[in-house]
Amino acid sequence: MSEPTSLGSERAMQIVAENKLRAAIEAGEFDNLPGLGKPSPLIDEPYDPFWWVRRKLRRENLPADPRDGWQR
Hints:
Layout: H1 7-26, H2 51-59
């Protein structure tokens, strides 16, 4: 007996998500978002896979390098 595939359920979830997004767009839930029409402040930055870590450290006023004073 073959194992059931999850392709059907994945497609079903995709359809539900698309329908919810479409309904939200039509209801105007994405209108007037902060930053709408403005370029991303990160657009000119070089690619950094740890951008979110560095941003969090900056926001928390923590050094990005453990040699700069990380304490436990």
